[in-house]
Amino acid sequence: MSSMPTVRFLDRSTPPHILTLILLAGVSAMSMSVFLPSLPRMTEEFATEYGVMQLAVSLYLACTAVIQVFVGPLSDKFGRRPVVLGSLAIFVLASVGCYFSTTIEVFLTFRMLQAAVAVGMVTSRAIVRDMVPQDEAASMIGYVTMGMALVPMFAPMIGGVLDQFFGWRAVFLFMIAFGALLGWLCYKDQGETIQSAGLSFRDQFRQYPELFTSRRFWGYVFAAAFASGAFFAFLGGAPFVATEVYGASPASAGIFFGIPALGYATGNFISGRFSVRIGIDRMIVAGTILLSFGMALSVITSYAGLGSLYQFFGFCIFVGLGNGLVLPNATAGMLSVRPHLAGTASGIGSAIMIGGGAALSASSGALLTDTSGSLPLQWIMLITSLFSMASIFYVLIRARQIAAP
């Protein structure tokens, strides 16, 4: 029997509706992906190089990682609701700053401030874990992130069309409106879900060793981090591959950027349907195998001389599908190792995942040149996929050791 609490939409005396959680989890993904088709044009307008302009992705991810180290303890102490509302206010103001920026330095400064909205990724998962137990949490997180996948699926398409017809600044007007509407929705609908008054920061830090000495926690963290690393590398390098290697327009590039999100939505739907029945560990194993298989085929076909825009982005559907199976289940695993530190575990796990993603995003942007083609990016995505597979097998080995008499 489900232990799902009563939820009433737009009633902040009850936990938030799943629609609110979907949008809250998705706004950070939207902010990461909606302006990707604009990067080449923004590079020209700011009179800089693509590697510098690409910092709008990697610096955003780096700031996201730092923020998530602190947002977990903050939300455990003060509650999910005030932390979410404050972060959305900062996001809207930072988006206004991006819109009016006239130099690359000013733009990147406000772009880093936009990372405050990543609070939604941490708190949405912690809210789910507040509401239901582990296996149900994996299922519910799967549904939340399946819906979340629709945001980055359509966001690059919207961004590409806005750029092509109204210029790149229109993309940031869209972010301002989206952030403001979501702030209103959270204010009206997001009831507090944390049950206690919260531990003091000193008490939380005293309990960190309990979390950090758990090998299973780190296994789940790195399974998620390496799987998502393939996607973050894609974010850093795919705009260059689409526009510079294969000559796609901003609008068409935006459509291709949605392919991994289509796979992600499918993987999340499967997680939502089968995680309770099959178990989170088996779901993660299946996801890492699919991810590694798809990236291996991508590399092999490129070496066989079959590389093309359709070949590169077509195999990237495995990036989304694998992540859709891995991330909700690995997240449920890391949050359930020490349930009383769910917010902290979510923040630390996300910080490692996205911090690594920032490094991979920057690396992929730096390695791609006019003569390299797409292969450097494909190799990065394959290697991180294999490391993800190794991480979940370590979790399985550790679980058997604990269970052994």
Briefly, what is this?
With 405 residues, this protein is mainly alpha-helical. It is 81% helix and 0% strand.
Task: Please provide a written account of the structure.
The chain is mainly alpha-helical and about 400 residues long. About 80% of the residues lie in helices and about 0% in strands. The protein has helices spanning about 20-35, 40-45, 50-55, 55-80, 80-100, 105-115, 120-130, 135-165, 170-190, 200-210, 215-245, 250-255, 260-280, 280-305, 310-315, 315-335, 340-365, 375-405. Helix 1 runs antiparallel to helix 7, helix 4 (about 55-80) packs parallel to helix 7 (about 120-130) and helix 14 (about 280-305) packs antiparallel against helix 16 (about 315-335). The longest helix has about 35 residues, at about 135-165.
Describe the secondary-structure layout:
Blueprint: H1 18-33, H2 39-45, H3 50-53, H4 55-78, H5 80-100, H6 104-114, H7 119-131, H8 134-166, H9 169-189, H10 201-212, H11 215-245, H12 250-257, H13 259-278, H14 280-303, H15 309-315, H16 317-337, H17 342-367, H18 375-403
Feature tags:
single chain, 405 residues, mainly alpha, 81% helix
